[in-house]
Amino acid sequence: MREKDPFNELVKLMQQLRAPGGCPWDRQQTHATLRPFLLEETHEVLEAIESRDPGKLKDELGDLLFQVIFHSQLAAEARRFDIYDVIRGSLDKMTRRHPHVFGKQRARTAGQVLENWEEIKRQERQGSTESLLAGVPRTLPALLRAHRVQSKAARVGFTWARMDEAAAKVAEEIAELENALLTRRKSRITEELGDAFFALVNLARFAGTNPEDALHQAIGKFIGRFSRLERRIQRGKKALSDFPQDELLELWKQAKGRPSSRVTVPRRKPGKSLAPKKLAARKNPDRPKPGQRYKRNL
Questions:
Q1: What is the pTM of this model?
Q2: How far apart are CA 147 and CA 126, in angstroms?
Q3: How is the chain split among helix, strand and coil, in percent rounded to 5?
Q4: Element (H or E) spanning 27, and its range?
Q5: DSSP annotation string for 139-180
Q6: Domains of the chain, residue spans
Q7: Domains 6-96 and 131-298 share a fold
Q8: Residue 158 above 50 pLDDT?
Q9: Rg (the chain; Cα; Å)
């Protein structure tokens, strides 16, 4: 009999909720119907981390843990696995993938740890026809998924070698997007817009910036400035729709804390590079081991 503790009590509670005479709602759930709740709880954990509130984080982690136990209980009822199989599998995997802690390997830096990790995963996949990129979930937010895909490809040498090359690729993709806009073909615009996003994510990786975090920060900045704009307009007892576009632009500049004088942005011809003539030759942050060759057709 397993030792009585809070974790096992939570597992027992889940079993009671699913048992005959338990909670009608919990008894109706499946792996598929629980998907939105798992996603919601994950985002609430992320929000709690951002709030830096330990009490809130504790509560949200508990809710996320309950989702893991819920899915494990469904699998146990189908005689596939239970929560203890999940834990044992995680223990085995983490022990195997940390040989620098539990074995004889050495890793002095986080970069070396990642190299070892990918090599261990490669060995685990030996004999499998599954792609190196198959482990990146399709359900990740698109920017984060692109970042993960590019990082994995880069660790085996499929990447640009320097930041200036990545920046030039951004300029190239934006030029192609501008040409697509002239065609007014939605399918082509969508394709080129996706390529431009993908190239920007790659540049963010070279800069050591998570693109998801960067966009999240930009959204927060826009919301803050837009709220200031709304308050300014509301003080005059007017609505946004009462202002012509040029006046809204001037008010927006004021909300950004910039002078109201117009700023002239020089136009450039489609296809002209946005990349600076020279960038610091920053090396690829996911550089593979010496001897591996970089490929330049990203």
A1: 0.63
A2: 25
A3: 60, 0, 35
A4: helix 24-28
A5: TS-HHHHHHHHHHHHHTTTBS-SBHHHHHHHHHHHHHHHHHH
A6: 6-96, 97-130, 131-298
A7: yes
A8: yes
A9: 26
Tokens of 256: 């950004």
- Into which CATH architecture does domain 131-298 fall? Orthogonal Bundle (1.10)
Token digits of residue 231: 């308050």
Q: Say if residue 285's pLDDT is above 80.
A: no
3-class SS of residue 64: helix
- Of 132, 161, 130, 171, the C-alpha closest to 148 is 132
Q: For the purposes of burial, counting CB atoms within 10 Å of the CB of 56, is it exposed (0-12), middle (13-18) or buried (19 or more)?
A: middle
The fraction of the chain above a pLDDT of 70, given in percent, is 85
Beta carbons of 192 and 177 less than 8 angstroms apart:
yes
Angle at 59 between CA 57 and CA 64, to 5 degrees: 90
6-96: CATH number: 1.10.287.1080
Query: Is pLDDT at 124 greater than 60 in this prediction?
Result: yes
